[in-house]
Amino acid sequence: MKAWKSLLLGLLLANGVVAAPVELDKVAVIVNDGVILQSDITTALKSLQANAKKQGQTLPEQSVLQEQILEKLIVDALQAQEAKRIGVRIDDERLNQTIASIAEQNQQTLAQLQASLASDGISYPEFREQIRKELALSEARNALVRRRINILPAEVDSLADALAQETNANVQYQVRHIQLRLDGQDNAALEQQAQDIITKYNQGEDFSTLAYTYSKGPKALEGGDWGWLRKEEMPTIFADQITTQGKGALIGPFRSGVGYHILLIEDVQGMETVAVTEANARHILIKPSVILSDEGAKQELNEMIRQINAGEATFGDLAAQHSQDPGSAARQGELGYQTPDLYVPEFKYVVETLPVGTISEPFKTVHGWHIVEVLDRRQVDRTDAAMKDRAYRLLFNRKFNEEVDAWLQELRAGAFIEVLGDNPDAR
């Protein structure tokens, strides 16, 4: 959820302009056991065009846009099916917190946000449900991609050493990207297409419009925008190409296993030194099962809270006896000093906001039901431990960005997708 700009783009694609009622709707694409309707594509197309007009953005012709939109709708549908499969649910409390954050980032009150939505033709209930959907997709993506990531201690040590020696470790780059996939095409022809795109850019065409038109990368419908990234957070193929280039530099085309890439460095930011807040928390995890419902798990945790408050048992003893997180249960529920960013969103929010020494109400994540107690917080500067923690997070972010793209391609390759009627092929 790094940038609500991305989430709001998804909203605009789905609900930015309320489509006029149609007498007949039809199925445009079958995606496994779900469908994408023609009205979904039409509404998304009108929404994107209206938003581009509002922002003064030049877009390619409608047939190209429709193909890109259809691809996004297919990928979103597959992710939604995965979210349903693993039981992701976004409750109203989490949804309200997210919407409040969106309003705050836009420097608006909730009432002002609602008025702004209404002026764009978006009803507030539609907005809420689209945000709920985007949160569910993100939750499923995070949960399923995390399982694919393996970080070795030697990798952490090596990067921590490099970070300690670099004087520009905190330089950030605002990067845009165009990816051209081979997909059976002739290599020379694809390289020539990349050179032609660079020529168009040098002749004054807008890079984001070129990304909308040609890119097959994960940020195509965001104009190729990856936002602000440190080199350590970038996919390796980006980081390897960026050396001393400055603002406005165009890099490429360069080759990877999937095809050709072009990078644009839109801006560069200098160094920053920020203290890290670490929290030492402990938790008890209860996982629902075929014989234990969500309500049953919640009741078990509430009974544990009662026992702790009544002095009948300690948090540590109950964690050791009942927690279904084996690693922390062996330490009486303690997770040790960690930056909250390492946790899944719901757990992160509780650890960040819970007063020290207070036990949370039961809450649910993708792992199950939890209660948490924050034992202590501390500010950490550039100690060896903090540097290794930062190295781990940077490695995780880099591998996560790489694995998301691979996961989505595998998800799509293994799906049954049938484009009906005259809709363009979703390649």
From TrEMBL:
Can you provide one Gene Ontology molecular function annotated for this UniProt record?
A: peptidyl-prolyl cis-trans isomerase activity
Which part of the chain is the PpiC domain? Answer: 170-267, 276-376
**Cross-referenced InterPro entries:** OMP_Chaperone_SurA, PPIase_dom_sf, PPIase_PpiC, PPIase_SurA, SurA_N, Trigger_fact/SurA_dom_sf
| Record has Nucleus as a keyword | no
What processes does the entry annotate via GO biological process terms? Gram-negative-bacterium-type cell outer membrane assembly; protein folding; protein stabilization
Reaction equation(s) it catalyzes? [protein]-peptidylproline (omega=180) = [protein]-peptidylproline (omega=0)
Signal peptide positions (record): 1-19
Q: What class of enzyme is it?
A: isomerase
Describe the function of this protein. Answer: Chaperone involved in the correct folding and assembly of outer membrane proteins. Recognizes specific patterns of aromatic residues and the orientation of their side chains, which are found more frequently in integral outer membrane proteins. May act in both early periplasmic and late outer membrane-associated steps of protein maturation.
Report the domain remarks: The PPIase activity resides only in the second parvulin domain. The N-terminal region and the C-terminal tail are necessary and sufficient for the chaperone activity of SurA. The PPIase activity is dispensable for SurA to function as a chaperone. The N-terminal region and the C-terminal tail are also required for porin recognition.
Protein's name according to its UniProt entry: Chaperone SurA
Q: In which organism is this protein found?
A: Vibrio agarilyticus
Question: What gene is it encoded by?
Answer: surA
